[in-house]
Amino acid sequence: MKIKNPTLISLGNGKFYQRTDGPCLDVGAFAQGLIFASGCKQIILGKPNANYFNIALEMMGLSAEEVVMIGDDIVSDVGGAQLCGIRGIQVRTGKFRPEWENHAAVKPDLIADTLYHAVKTIADNGFNL
């Protein structure tokens, strides 16, 4: 059976995720291989798709200005949030890589050592990152 104009639907586009024994390929690595091999287009239902963040805002009844995204992935977490006007905090834990502090496209509103430090900064200063 041949499908005209196939579309690959994926839940994300991350390159890798972090396990206790090291990094593992994430769905994005496999999706890109399938896209390259088939020439199909991709629809991303999860991060960093703007719809993912906009639906979350709508469900919470909040505006982008009232929300901060804290994450360990510079592109999916921080970059995806910033595309929707949400401030993004990069934490230096989980899958974080030091070279992300100088990422060419995504500039976090704040870089924090841990989730605790990110939350404490917000608690102490409000949203004045």
Write up what this structure looks like:
The structure is a single chain. With 129 residues, this protein is α/β, with parallel strands linked by helices. The chain has two domains: 7-44, no CATH class; 62-125, Rossmann fold (3-Layer(aba) Sandwich), CATH 3.40.50.1000. Helix content is 34%, strand content 22%. It has four helices and seven strands. The protein has helices spanning 27-38, 50-60, 74-83, 115-125; strands at 7-10, 16-19, 22-25, 41-44, 68-71, 87-91, 110-112. Strands 5-6-7 form a three-stranded parallel sheet. The protein is globular, with a radius of gyration of 16 Å. This is Phospholysine phosphohistidine inorganic pyrophosphate phosphatase. It holds the Pfam family Hydrolase_like. GO terms for molecular function: inorganic diphosphate phosphatase activity; phosphatase activity.
Task: Write a compact overview of the structure shown.
The protein has about 130 residues and is an alpha/beta fold. It has helices at about 25-40, 50-60, 75-85, 115-125, and strands at about 5-10, 15-20, 20-25, 40-45, 70, 85-90, 110. The chain has 2 domains: about 5-45, no CATH class; about 60-125, HAD superfamily/HAD-like (Rossmann fold, 3-Layer(aba) Sandwich), CATH 3.40.50.1000.
What tags apply to this protein structure?
129 residues; 2 domains; Rossmann fold; single chain; globular; two-stranded parallel ribbon; 4 helices; alpha/beta
